[in-house]
Amino acid sequence: MCYGFGEPTQAAPAAPQAAPAPRSGERQVPLDDVSIQLYTLRTVLEDDHDAVMTALAGIGYRKVEAAGTWGRTAQELRGFLDGLGVRATSAHLPLAEDAAGLERKLADAVALGHAYVNVPFLRSESSEDWKRWADEINAEAQAFAEQGIRFGYHNHAHEYTVQLDDGTTPWDVLTSRCDPALVHLELDLHWVVTAGVQLGESDPVGYTLDVISAAPQRVRQYHVKDRHADTGDTGDLGSGMVDFARIFAAHQVEEWIVENDRPDVTPLRTAEVGWAYLSDIRF
């Protein structure tokens, strides 16, 4: 998910032709573990939620990452998705504001059958804010663990590039303070590569691999989206500079979630391209 932060970008002037998925090895992405972040499809979901979800199921998706319930209760949405053979295995949800909010959040997650819940975005230049948020993440993660649900954090670029008032970065605080036994990472590959570019790394994909290996917390989910080299904008899979085969060969995850904050052509085209790319890639 993108909230307009990180490297200033604008939509690519023309949709580049997606390159074929590389076939550099024999391993492949398990299609049962491929999902899509519904934020990618927000504009068309607003027009006809049920038709779009039916189309996703037709493409092959059996998992989605939720971003809202689109006017239904959690129970109603679960019933609709069950009818399609689709499960909202993951969700982006902000930190709860109070105990009652946490109870509602837990109840909805259980009703929808989430296996993962991730904090989608936090931003501050205060180290104390990040310490407080890390402690809140730990507390919520404990509550979700008691329901059998994993709790994680989803990154953008600023967690790596912003220097806080004590000289650390947000990523330093999160990875040093969040309990690895309770908290996992949902790594957005576009944004980590973008951070590498912003930091002047000669090998942004290598930087991404270093981020994965250095974190005490396990990277259990990927947001798989490409990066246009010219604009830095998000891209459909195969249209940009990210060497997914290299990343996947180094570290596999439990969910591979297609996303593009600003689809190159249409949201459903992004879904089709993403499914085909992850079906074909070998590493």
Automatic annotation (TrEMBL):
For the Xylose isomerase-like TIM barrel domain, which residue ranges apply?
55-250
Parts forming coiled coils: none
Q: Where is the composition biased (Low complexity)?
A: 10-22
Q: Name one GO molecular function term.
A: isomerase activity
**Domain of life of the organism in this record?**
Bacteria
Chain spans, region Disordered: 1-28
Keywords assigned by UniProt? Isomerase
What protein does this entry describe?
Sugar phosphate isomerase/epimerase
